[in-house]
Amino acid sequence: MAEVSRLQVEKALGQYIVPHLNRSLMSSAVIKSIDISGSSVVVEAELGFPVASLKASMQQDISRLIKEIDGVDRANVHINWLVAPVKSQQKHRNMEEVKNIVAVASGKGGVGKSTTAVNLALALVKEGARVGLLDADIYGPSQQLMLGVDEDQRPDQHGKEFLLPIEAHGLRTMSMGYLTTDKTPMVWRGPMAGGALAQLLTQTWWGDLDYLVIDMPPGTGDIQLTLSQTASVAGAVIVTTPQDIALVDAQKGIEMFRKVEVDVLGVVENMAIHICSECGHREHLFGDGGGSRIAKDYGVPLLGALPLSMQIREQVDAGNPTVAAEPEGEVAKLYGEIARNTAAQLSLLCSGPVQVFPNIVINND
Fold it and tell me: Mapped to the 3 state alphabet, what secondary structure does 249-300 carry?
């Protein structure tokens, strides 16, 4: 029987491209150890983003490549993940355990930003992450309705200083909607709204979170600036539709985050295509490829494209967003793709030390 060498295993691992990173296992510095014992090979890998839905298939595909090596009879691959913080939140006691804050924003209203934010957060939970969701739209909070939280439910207190987030669909959530009623309009000037956001963010006891997704109000005003000054935002996701006016406003959103030194993780193109429920005809009602163009212009990835669907709207209106309502449905899979792409982009921003050379053990008994 041929003796299995380290170089053979490394070469096999180098053939596997990590989903969403577009890099090989060896060049991604995610291999923790390689253990070769006779004809048996055991590989341990640790990704920087959650992939619960892909874990089994990834392990099978990598094992298959290793088994193609002459002399290997058995290959065991173990994939785990550890989400690292891109930026520290140490200046706020209630957010010390929040690893990454992700702002979901748009330059204008009506592009489906809040629907994208809640489904993105739920998709990250489905992938195995601990996730919080903050509804930062002080004037028109919508996440309470989208998550199906009873209008009479109020947050409990943590000590005398903090509020506890309300659990909904596996998310830890906070919204101005939990503190007011539908008949209480926020007739505030901009600085007052910014102050309210700062309080919601810094006076909620978030606990241990891999990601805190913030559903931003549309525009580039006081609340956006308040967020950038109050917390260390790891990255921003820009939501747009393909139509020209939405793209112009999306560009303003990207420029705003760049000016306040927040990395733009990518673009989500919402309402990209309409598929007729009767005949299956596909039509680009708002234009074609706009999200791709703006992503290319700014050198950021297109995180995903979503259809114009009545079902998505009906599900959030009913308090049961698509990822929760139909977790194995086609649209939920699209949100899952967007969530993994977003988390992968964040992992690439982490500046911590990486293990370039894996620990390799060779036993020839």
Answer: HHHHHHHHHHHCCCCEEEEEECCCCEECCCCCCEECCCCCCHHHHHHHHHCC
Per the structure, the complete domain to which residue 31 belongs is given by: 6-83+351-363
Phi, psi (degrees; rounded to nearest 5) at 105: -135, 165
Based on the fold, state whether residues 46 and 133 are members of the same structural domain. no
Question: Which CATH number do you get for residue 277?
Answer: 3.40.50.300
3-state secondary structure 72-95: CCEEEEEEEECCCCCCCCCCCHHH
* Among 85, 168, 80, 184, residue whose Cα is nearest residue 132: 168
Closest CA to 266 of 218, 235, 302, 306: 302
Query: What is the residue type of 233?
Result: V
264 and 359 inside one domain? no
279-309 pLDDT, tens digit per residue, is 666 666 566 777 888 898 899 999 999 998 8
355 part of a folded domain: yes
For residues 197 and 231, what is the distance between their CA atoms, to the nearest angstrom?
A: 11
Q: Can you tell me the distance from the alpha carbon of 262 to that of 78, in angstroms, rounded to the nearest whole number?
A: 34
Cβ distance 171 to 133 under 8 Å?
yes
Specify the long-range contacts of residues 19-25, CB closer than 8 Å, at least 24 apart.
19/51, 19/54, 19/58, 19/340, 20/49, 20/51, 20/340, 20/341, 20/343, 20/344, 21/344, 21/347, 21/348, 25/62
Residue 275 inside a domain? The answer is yes
DSSP 357: S
126 in the same domain as 113: yes
Assigned domain for 30 exists: yes
The Cα–Cα gap between 320 and 145 comes to: 9
Q: What is the pLDDT of residues 106-131, one digit of tens each?
A: 877 788 999 999 999 999 999 999 99
What pTM was estimated for this model as a whole?
A: 0.89
Closest C-alpha among 264, 230, 259 to residue 105: 264
DSSP state for residue 48 in the 8-state scheme: S
For residue 301, list its beta bridge partners: none
**Number of C-alpha atoms within 13 angstroms, CB side, residue 67?**
11
The gap between the terminal CA atoms of the chain, to the nearest Å, is 13
- Which CATH number does the domain housing residue 22 bear? 3.30.300.130
Q: Can you tell me which residue has the tokens 């990207």?
A: 254
